[in-house]
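Dear Dr. H.,

I hope your travels went smoothly. While you were away I took the liberty of generating a structure for the chain from your last submission, since the lab meeting agenda had it listed for discussion. I wanted you to have the full record in hand beforehand rather than looking at slides cold. The sequence, exactly as received, is reproduced here:
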Amino acid sequence: MYGIDTRKHAVALVASGRSLNSVSKQTGISRAAIRAWQTRIEPLPRLLITPCPRCRPVPGAPEDTAAYAYLLGLYLGDGCISAHPRGVGHYLRIACADAWPGLIEACRSAIKAVRPEDQVYVLQKQGCVMVTSYGRHWPCLFPQHGPGRKHDRSIALEPWQRDIVNAHPWEFIRGLVHSDGCRITNWTTRLVGGERKRYEYPRYFFTNRSADIIRLFTSALDAVGVEWKPSNAQNTSIAKRDSVALMDQHIGPKY
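The corresponding predicted structure, in token form, is as follows:
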């Protein structure tokens, strides 16, 4: 983006009698841009870019930290970042199942809240969509990005990310459950008055191949008072009645 002084200088050169072509060669600015500035010198509102909070002289957190905590959970579960093959930017992609349109919209909204400047679009795949956004600063906002799969490398939060998760643990848990978790109804049988009856109860599961991401999930559960237990190396179960009720209050089923 060119500043106002640069724009005024280029327009003044044309106004002095110079051709668009000669001014473009001198300044390195395209003729189309100079021609547009002759009509409107001020940048359009949609082009006013807010600096990346991590790239400021004093790095900070995204403005909407609650949305970021949710998006961080989605990214750690079903997200990835990849470089544009011919550009300087990166793609953020979050996989969302077609069965959960509410999740798709929640993901889109979180991305726009974290980076209002970057466009968000949906790419249809078989059985799912990739909620996608292209921008230069996704690796700044998600430093867990790296080569290979997340479960094959160390995953740890930066101090500023830990502060956000500590401030918004339920949003973080919600993002993880919406990506790699579920709420199901289990059943068993028990004897009641000598008669065996079917008994149903709700339960939450979280499944991930990364031990580090599981630890982040269970640490957040500990912080909000939810009891959990491992079902196996990749699965975490929440089945205690009070804990399920707490999860229902803040998370609930996907929609």
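Two observations you may find useful: The chain has two domains: 4-47, 65-250. Strands lie at 79-83, 90-97, 120-125, 128-135, 181-192, 195-207, 229-232, 235-238.

With kind regards,
E. W.
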